[in-house]
Amino acid sequence: MPQLGSALHSMADERLTVEIVDDDKQREKNEMKTADSTLFRRTISRFASGVTVITTSHGGTNQGMTASAVTALSLNPPMLVLCVNREAPTHEAISTADSFVVNVLSKSQEPLARQFSRPSDDKFAGVETYTSALGLPVITGCLANFECSVTARTTGGTHTIFIADVRAAAAYDERKPLLYYAGRFGRLVLAEDDLRDLNRLEKAESGWTSDWFRMA
Ligand SMILES: Cc1cc2nc3c(=O)[nH]c(=O)nc-3n(C[C@H](O)[C@H](O)[C@H](O)COP(=O)(O)O)c2cc1C
């Protein structure tokens, strides 16, 4: 079974990369280059992230945008940080409302990530929401939702960094995350899933079971 064998070895080789150090170490020493925006964009895209849609409302109008520059800041009190380009219309809406919702997208919500990453007069078309205690639109079907109040803001380059208190939150454990990596959307494979696949592959190759073929 040559195909099965090569798949097995490529998975095994990935696990061994850290052991093959000498050539890699030498190569890595020459790899760091002065960062410009092109190099930075290419390089930061290797930092895999979750995907969120930030929603807010002001003057009776809902606004929203796809964002990955969201991170936890403090556990006690619960706080997070959001970075938004000042040119995005959603920036104006968040600044005015001083509050926003972080909707963490689940794997089936890739179309929403695309819908909210393009300027549009009707970003919420076909999107199911309910209204939070602060009067903000919350997207349903997400992995998690955080309702936030802005407590401080500062500027970094083209973006505003919003620092916010998390006022309310909900997580839905049975849903799986949507990820973003190297300019593409993806799915999460937990390490133990990977290991399980490798074990099945090994057994299948030595003729113990054909489970792996049924999974593929
Ligand atoms: C996966 C992904 C992540 C993004 N993350 C951010 C982000 O963190 N901050 C930001 O300002 N724009 C981000 N964007 C770009 C905005 O979604 C895009 O500029 C959008 O049009 C802004 O909406 P608006 O123009 O209606 O305000 C991201 C886009 C994608 C596809």
From TrEMBL:
Alphabetized SMART domains for the sequence: Flavin_Reduct
Pfam families, per database record: Flavin_Reduct
Residues annotated as signal peptide: none
Molecular functions (GO terms): FMN binding; riboflavin reductase (NADPH) activity
Keywords for the protein's UniProt record, in alphabetical order: Oxidoreductase
Family, as annotated: Belongs to the non-flavoprotein flavin reductase family.
Residues covered by the Flavin reductase like domain: 44-187
Protein name in the entry: NADH-FMN oxidoreductase RutF, flavin reductase (DIM6/NTAB) family
Lineage: Bacteria, Bacillati, Actinomycetota, Actinomycetes, Mycobacteriales
Keyword Transmembrane: no
InterPro entries, alphabetized: Flavin_Rdtase-like_dom, NADH-dep_flavin_reductase, Split_barrel_FMN-bd
